[in-house]
Amino acid sequence: MKRLVLFIAAGLIFAAYMERVEALSQGENANDTNEAQEWFQKGHDASDPNEQVEYYKRAIAIDPNYIDAYINLGNVYNNRGMLDEAIIEYKKALVINANDFWTHNNLGIAYDRKGKLDEAIVEYKKAIEITPDIAAVHCNLGVAYKRKKLLEKAMFEIKKAITIDSNNTVAHYNLGTVYAEKGALDDAIAEFEKALSTNASFIEAHYDLGLTYEKKKKVDEAIAEFKNVISVNPNYANAHNSLALQYLKKGLVSLAADHWYKAGLLYLEEGDRDSAFKVYEELKRNKLKEQEQSLLQKLNPEKGKKSESSQ
Question: How far apart are the C-alpha atoms of 16 and 5, rounded to whole Å?
Fold first, then answer.
């Protein structure tokens, strides 16, 4: 059997599978156990979250001590943003086995995502006490410390993760974000590049590397990284926005206008009207009338029509 394991990186949830090595909890008899396992497997194989929830619940109804079913049910809720429900399921799993380090880790993630960083840190530490040599958990603890602005503690934990797994892409990326926040830009660049050496399509690393080059006023390098992001994900609104600003610095006004307009449309698709309006303000400030009016039409159709008729 497999259970779904979560680990977090700079606010992003990543998923991986870990083989379950402990013996599965037993039902009242072999038939009950087999039936519970069948429902668990259906939940594991299902792609629809509603079906996953149903199947894991059926496994639990047959075998109330089926810890993996509680954990996977919690993970489904966690991935759906149903964090209170996830926390309940993880706590039920810990009643069955208080020393399951992945459950402590995943409970920490749920707390982390709720903004309860102190509770998250407690759970990550418990996971580390049980199993000290899992890079992902040290990385998660480091991210929680970073969010609390405890940058030295964050660096210690993330470096510990890298000591355990020197090729851990997420750990190198997170260490880069800590260095960037500390203003150690060259160190940040080095870590982002290490992350990209193990995963060239890691768009967050490309994006933050671009931002770091921007801080160092290396416009061409920043442009290259933002273009790398867009080549992997053409709908990355922040990359279009950042790329537009770099093009403007080089006097490439038409390209800047195109990418600002694209960013504005993407922000609107995401429901982020505030960011879309900021893009509109940039277009207006830089007298990019065509894109300004087109985006205004999307933001406020009636106002856009009036503006067009007054010209």
Answer: 5
